[in-house]
Amino acid sequence: MGTGERRRIVGRIGLLWLIVTLVGLAVPSAGQAQEAASTSYEYTFGQQATFNLWLPASSMAQEATLFLRINEDLTRAYTAPVDDGRATYTRALREVPWPPFATITYWWEYNGQTTARARFLYEDNRFRWQTRQEGGITVHWVDGDAALMVNALDIARNARREIESTLQAPPLDTLSIYIYPSSPDLQSALRLAGREWVAGQAYPDLGVILLAIPPTEGAVLRMRRDIPHELTHQIHYNLVGDQGYAGQPEWLVEGLASHFETTPDPVYAVTLNEARETGQLIEMTTLCYPFPDDRGRALLAYAQSQSFVNYLQRTYGWATMRSLIHAYADGLDCSAGVEQTLGMSLPALDRAWRVWLERTAQGYAEPWSATAMVMLRDLAPWLTLLALTLLPGAIFVVLTRLGR
Q1: Residue ranges making up the domain that contains 196
Q2: Sheet of strand 137-141, all strands in order from the earlier edge strand to the far edge
Q3: Which helix (H) or strand (E) holds 252?
Q4: Is residue 326 in some structural domain?
Q5: What's 83's domain CATH number?
Q6: Per-residue pLDDT tens for 176-226?
Q7: At residue 90, what are phi and psi to the nearest 5 degrees?
Q8: CA–CA separation, 352 vs 370, rounded Å?
Q9: Cα–Cα distance measured from residue 292 to residue 265, given in angstroms and rounded to the nearest whole number
């Protein structure tokens, strides 16, 4: 090999070495390439939530911004200082609670950089939940035999099929049912989340149902009542949407839910019958929004709503009931929806229902007998007042004649 050839080879090797060196300087090492920000979160249900951001050593950021979204609500931003490469945002959930079992989405931004978006479920982590899933329905429970939860899934699946078919509603994609072991446990969860306490609660916008069913001998009976009831709220919501659901009268919302209960609450029948016999039934116009705060009157409101919806369904059929639901979803008020769909005012419909209720309770063969009974009960206060007004005059006349 000649001198010239050796020089050319050495020159090529030198050029190749230079290229490799330059590429090495331009491309970070494997360790450097992997250096990036990391995030984490932790929370105690109803107490506090903390979000952390750890920045790479090369970052010179002085502050970072946390973006936080609750379900599909508007995203909110919170700025936090960076101290020793770490930014932290803490939220006091007692003061600003999150909806229970909401989906939380969050990410950070710093110096024009954005971390990956992360999501988690704001589950009640005070309990260790067990789960069982079938066909898009997931049951979560704390105490009790797994066989009991299989029954819960069966009840939910059958009720879902019937309600969706009857209301002609779109099928549910997913549904989570959380069964607390006691009423106080559920009550504390709702209060920690800033919600009012009720025996069971559906959050249709979340696709979550919360129930309090102790794992005792009567658990299946409770499930047959409570699961279809709350499931009806979810399906009703899916049928008409958020605004349409808000426009539904309370008596229709709760009456429909009570109608689909596989095992109706026997207390409803007793409460309704007592109010009927004593003339204490609530006018349906007052049950549009909202129900009474008094516990006894609220129970009667539920009982009346169930009976009223049963009457409408038997009298007019499900096609008309669906039309009524959509009339309210279109924005008609409580009275106008009934008048447009049924051709009758709500007070007149109330009176017709009371006649039907009297006939059903007393077994009257003729409609006019029940009507007369209802009219007599409605007029009883006025007849009593009239009698008290005329009584002094009658006594005077009698005494005058006796004195002759």
Answers
A1: 128-239
A2: 130-134, 137-141, 175-180, 208-212, 200-203
A3: helix 250-259
A4: yes
A5: 2.60.40.10
A6: 999 999 999 998 988 888 776 554 556 677 788 999 999 999 999 999 999
A7: -120, 135
A8: 10
A9: 19
